[in-house]
Amino acid sequence: MSTVPLRVAVVCASNQNRSMEAHYFLSKRGFSVGSFGTGTHVELPGPAPDEPVYDFRTTYDQMYNDLVSKDRDLYTQNGMLHMLERNKRIKPRPERFQNCQDVFDLIVTCEESVYDQVVEDMNSREQVTCQPVHVINVDIEDNDEEATVGAILICKLCQCIQHTEDMEDDLDELLQEFEEKSGRPFLHTVCFY
């Protein structure tokens, strides 16, 4: 069992709901955690499929103020203002995984298309240290309730991994146990820094 906190990245499409809920849960339990999105821009539910859309450089506070000015009632009702309130207490702005140079022990993605983007990005990077990083996907529907359920599952998984004697040897068996208990399939691969 390692006494050093597991370095975890949680990744969804826009670094808004699922990854931020897991970021919140993991940080409260002492993990070294970062959260990210893989999209080209940040998309939030709104009055049309293509709006509102923000650049990853836009802070959560700027998004919040913009939505309040556009339609406070709509964005209160659909939960976006509440979500952005939580997000800005955790970090200033969304971050894009492809721009991150931090090193993690574990990267957890929240949907298969994001998993594919993360693996593709990791495999396109120059390998410098050859340090392994485990990339795991668990599909989490993008809504408030599932984000919380998924965050709890990710947190339990990370706690179990933290307490294994040898993550390299024990991870496949642990993931199989989590699949059986949760009824959710997990994808897993190893990439290298």
Automatic annotation (TrEMBL):
Keyword terms of this UniProt record: Hydrolase, mRNA processing, Nucleus, Protein phosphatase
GO terms, molecular function: RNA polymerase II CTD heptapeptide repeat phosphatase activity
Lineage of source species: Eukaryota, Metazoa, Chordata, Craniata, Vertebrata
Gene: LOC109248135
Domain of life: Eukaryota
One Pfam family, short name: Ssu72
Protein species of origin: Panthera pardus
Recorded family membership: Belongs to the SSU72 phosphatase family.
EC number: 3.1.3.16
GO cellular component, one term: nucleus
Name of the protein described by the UniProt record: RNA polymerase II subunit A C-terminal domain phosphatase SSU72
Keyword Iron: no
